[in-house]
Design brief:
alpha+beta, 10-stranded mixed sheet, 5 helices
Length: about 190
């Protein structure tokens, strides 16, 4: 797959490949709601200052997005940074090609931004020559994440996968998550 392209939606979102220039905006968003950051990016260590972790995170995403191995976007609405969305390669099921991640900063929540951004990403994935199976994992107590996941799955024909909880390794411990699968595109399976 190619390098991460810019995407736009008809309803005013602009998605740009993540890069290091996002650092100051990401730090501001983290300061708004540190717990939201740690929930969305659970490998961040609360015992370590967030700024260097954010810097490393953005650098890694920028490098890997250029290679086409993963695709992460910063989400902007009216030129304001409002969140992140991406498809990565931390997979639970061998047949999957991607896992989906999304995070919206506290000041921009409850506006459907994650769902709208995911629609743009999935529309782009569906235009690729090969079909893709995308995983969505959500902590069972993340009500907002679960609601977003259900809306995405309802629109894109996703389904919940048994068993009820999948063991996800985060920060050296196993955390149970719910897992959904969405099959996108009608091309040849990857």
């Amino acid at each position: 797959m190619q390098a991460t392209p810019d995407l736009t939606t008809d309803d005013g979102l602009h998605l740009t490949a993540v890069n290091r220039r996002l650092f100051s905006e990401m730090v501001k968003a983290h300061v708004e709601d540190p717990e939201g950051t740690y929930s969305a990016i659970p490998w961040f260590d609360k015992k370590i200052e967030a700024s260097p972790q954010i810097s490393d995170f953005l650098f890694e995403l920028e490098v890997h997005s250029r290679s086409g191995r993963i695709h992460f976007w910063s989400i902007h609405e009216d030129d304001e940074f409002v969140g992140l969305v991406g498809i990565g390669d931390e997979l639970q099921i061998e047949e999957s090609q991607w896992n989906l991640g999304y995070w919206v900063r506290a000041s921009a929540r409850r506006r459907g931004i994650a769902r709208r951004a995911v629609n743009a990403v999935f529309t782009w994935v569906s235009a690729q020559p090969q079909s893709a199976q995308v995983e969505i994992t959500v902590h069972p107590q993340n009500e907002a994440g679960l609601a977003t996941c259900r809306a995405i799955c309802s629109q894109w024909g996703g389904r919940r996968v048994e068993p009820d909880f999948w063991p996800i390794e985060l920060g050296g411990r196993t955390v149970p998550h719910a897992l959904w699968l969405v099959n996108i595109g009608g091309g040849e399976p990857a």
